[in-house]
Amino acid sequence: MSLIVQKFGGSSVSDAEHIFNVANIITKAYSQGNDVIAVVSAQGDTTDELIEKANEINSHASKREMDVLLSTGEQISIALLSMAIEKLGFPVVSLLGWQAGFNTDTDYGNARIEKVCADRIRKELDKKNIVIVAGFQGINKYGDITTMGRGGSDTSAVATAAVMHADVCKIYTDVEGVYTADPRRVPSAKKLDVISYDEMLELATLGAQVLNNRSVEMAKKYNVEVEVLSSMKNTPGTIVKEAARLEKMLISGVTTDNNVARISVINIPDKPGFAFKLFSKLASKDINVDIILQSIGRNPTKDISFTVTENQLEDAIKILEKYIEPIDNSKILYDKNVAKVSIVGTGMETHVGIASMMFEALFEAQINIHMISTSEIKVSVLISSDDVDTALNAIHKKFFSSIE
Amino acid sequence: MSLIVQKFGGSSVSDAEHIFNVANIITKAYSQGNDVIAVVSAQGDTTDELIEKANEINSHASKREMDVLLSTGEQISIALLSMAIEKLGFPVVSLLGWQAGFNTDTDYGNARIEKVCADRIRKELDKKNIVIVAGFQGINKYGDITTMGRGGSDTSAVATAAVMHADVCKIYTDVEGVYTADPRRVPSAKKLDVISYDEMLELATLGAQVLNNRSVEMAKKYNVEVEVLSSMKNTPGTIVKEAARLEKMLISGVTTDNNVARISVINIPDKPGFAFKLFSKLASKDINVDIILQSIGRNPTKDISFTVTENQLEDAIKILEKYIEPIDNSKILYDKNVAKVSIVGTGMETHVGIASMMFEALFEAQINIHMISTSEIKVSVLISSDDVDTALNAIHKKFFSSIE
């Protein structure tokens, strides 16, 4: 007998038919003799509909009240799912975030789990109940409802699996697992059987959007084995765990990110501390800077280029204009027509020449590289967004054609 | 400075416009220097929509899960109302049933408040916050959400007023107060300035549907002054309090109830205990028997007639058929084409002849009386439902024409 945590996203419980599909998955695991805890998100577009309702009243409503409103989404889905499981004749109980003991900090709308007090969950499992838990939501030290931001249900599920020492945390979704590239754009993309936490983290950060980033960090921290799989197909998914590597694969995947813009500040003083001040200015306004490229100083001036997400471009420019203005000859340039292509894989730690394989693929496809950034398990390049699909396929072919 | 509890029903918060109307009423009272606690129901038809959602999944869902589902209704309305009050620039906080400390018994779907632990409400009032409380819902000893059944928000409001020693509990509704008869059917019906708890109780029981019965019982028990008034018109309503009586009015009102059916069991043995056993059989199946008429025994048999609510008629007949079957010659008859007309007033306690004034009015209108039932402050008659509007107007005219 195992203890299994399952997590179902909003599209998996969007209507009665989907809810019964999920109820069948849960009760099947229970019938096989397992203890089952299922963490559930709000139905389909519920969250967006609730936000719209709030905006009709007050588009600057407090985050506290937004959380009171938004947390009704999962409350509805756990009740309906429990009713479906009752209909199938199984013992079940639903628990809200505060009942399940998800203690969070006080950052409404983006709260982090500080502790899971799972006494109630344990008590219900002891009674042989299937336990349905509302994801995404918790309670803070004031006794108020908090929500964890988009994707928070993944974190709720992994945290539950961690504190309960579950054997596995199965994240059911609308894809069959983690792929070597987006299968809609790279027809030869392959589903990975296994991927490491670090690789998954890089992929999540890079916008692969299969698993919420915080949840992967937490899974890594508490060594929770996570499986990403489809709620509609009865096939094995991708297992995320420590230090997993398939011998013949040098990298785990190729991803792209179009939500990126390049800013160049040219002719700035070539003096110590200037770049530091510039980036701390941006950081203080919550603007994330990604790839940074600094020209070698040609006294008295130098150039700095860096990327930000496209929706933060405008804010970043405003801050820079205020800061750069007094300096003669310096200029701010920007380019939205860029995209980031990245390869991720722990194989880079042990194999040399992986970055150059990527550059070779791009060269063969006649694609110009604007900027390069590397980490221990990732190489990212900035290219023109017109080239992004060509680049994605060229790189994927270079690394995966041998195992096709 | 006073402490005011206000209660707003579902139609008062049905959309953004109504919500801002309510927000204006609340903030006006707050601006006048009062502490304000507002108890709110679910928006418009939310509860019915949620029930429909549940029925799609499981029409026999557990009451516990129904309560998890239904309690989202008020959660949405308190959040939206708080957002509207924030928009108007006032300090506000919303509290769910469990946060406001509504401790109930474990009777899901029809829970009774056992205790209000109002520490959190007090703390928020001390911080000069307007406090918006979700009506209808509470928490039981297991830490589970309970709901109080239809009209439960009235009870939440009165309980809050009782425990907080509020100066008044204002129940805002879509009528302007309590009337001497239904103004849609009796054009000359008058709004009462004052009515006693007992009269209000009889009216509530008789289906006047202005105030929930439990809430009036609680108001009486804790001597809470309640005002029933319109949320759309800025006029005084009807005050419900102890032993209030307008000199010139003999009765407070006339009500009718069409949801009634008469059952007659004829030719039953004229032996002690038979009627007792028959009614205890019905009571054990939760069938409420109202007016009872027993013929004088003509040894060896007698007849018993009584009324039940129309929707319990079928169940009652089934139980009776099972019970009566073995007895020779006895027969069960029923009539759905009946209605109950009642007059209510504490004046009856001190004035004689009030019942006969009612009978006189019915005689003058040529209406046949099937059955009669009286209490200290109420007289009810059962008549043909075809006559009910004629009877209502005739009786109202008899008692109130002098003060028209």
Describe this structure in words.
Two copies of one chain form a homodimer. Chain A is α/β, with parallel strands linked by helices. The first copy, chain A, has a domain at 3-173: Acetylglutamate kinase-like (Carbamate kinase). In chain A, 35% of the residues lie in helices and 25% in strands. Chain A is built from 13 helices and 20 strands. Chain A has helices at 16-31, 46-57, 63-70, 72-87, 97-100, 119-126, 152-163, 197-205, 213-222, 274-284, 313-324, 354-364, 388-400, and strands spanning 3-8, 35-40, 92-95, 102-104, 113-116, 130-134, 137-139, 145-147, 168-173, 194-196, 226-230, 238-241, 253-257, 261-269, 292-294, 301-308, 331-335, 338-344, 371-375, 378-384. In chain A, strands 3-6-2-1-9-11-12-10 form an eight-stranded mixed β-sheet, sandwiched between helices. In chain A, strands 13-18-20-19 form a four-stranded antiparallel β-sheet, sandwiched between helices. In chain A, strand 15 (292-294) and strand 16 form a beta hairpin. In chain A, helix 7 (152-163) runs parallel beside helix 9 (213-222). Chain A is globular and about 75 Å long. The two termini of chain A are 38 Å apart. Chains A and B meet through helix 1, helix 2, helix 3 and helix 4 of A and helix 1, helix 2, helix 3 and helix 4 of B.
